Here is the input.
Amino acid sequence: MTGNNIIKIEISGYELEFIKADNGAVLSGAKGNGSRLTVPDKADDMPVTCIGKKAFLADKSLKEVSLPGTVSLVDDWAFAGCENLRTFIKRGSANISFGSRVFDKCTRVENICLGYEEPDDLSHLMGAVIHRMPAEYLLKDTDIGSSGWYEKWDMCLGTFINEPDEDGYTDLVLCGEEDIFYNEPDYAENKRKRKASLCLIRLMHGDSLKGEYKSKFKSYLLDHTKGSSTEEAWMVMLEEYGEKTDYFRLFYDIGCITKENIDMMLDDMGGMHAEAKAYMLSLKREKFSEEDIFGQFKL
Here is the structure.
């Protein structure tokens, strides 16, 4: 312990600094280079109740963090710039409040698990809100995981799909952030990738997904698969899901992999993504070969 109000704990490659408060200990800072951190329930016999502002700001090594059930608030910018963070866990209780831009620039987050530790449909959809969906308010909803929350998620994606791809570019330029994208076409392409990625995630994690939205999200992917005028859905498959064969199965089930485009897809894959490519080759052999087509007419 340092001073009367400061508590320091070394754990998992980190030195954690806590400040004593009336309602418990606030984790105010973290120094270290560990990839996985389990924040303790207590600091010097005080319950850990808050992750303070900018506590993990720009931590490049952190990949997974697990918070105790005693934490009720993750304050502003707490994990901002943690560009390798993939999994956020709140143990024991789902009761938690998020400040503003808690996960700003956390571009690799996949799961936000509140009250449990094993990823599920909800955790993936929560993770998608972090850096794909323009709807930070979904993290602050008081009814996360309810049918109403899923409906809001799907409405938000539906609205995002309908938004013109160029919308927002001028605002970036006026704000001096034009260096993020080289030009407006690049910006629009990136936006279509985000839309396609969200559609894939939602169809893969389809809890409480209603038919009208399911059809809309499938249609978007079909409109942007290989061989379409713009191919962002296929680009996302290669760039984000090349090692996840279950996404390729989904892509086929939707109708995005066809006899007409499968050879082009295989060419694009080259020597990458061995397991997914093996699946694609099996599709070509079993579903799209001439032998299979004629075999359908045999008695």
Observations:
- The radius of gyration is 22 Å.
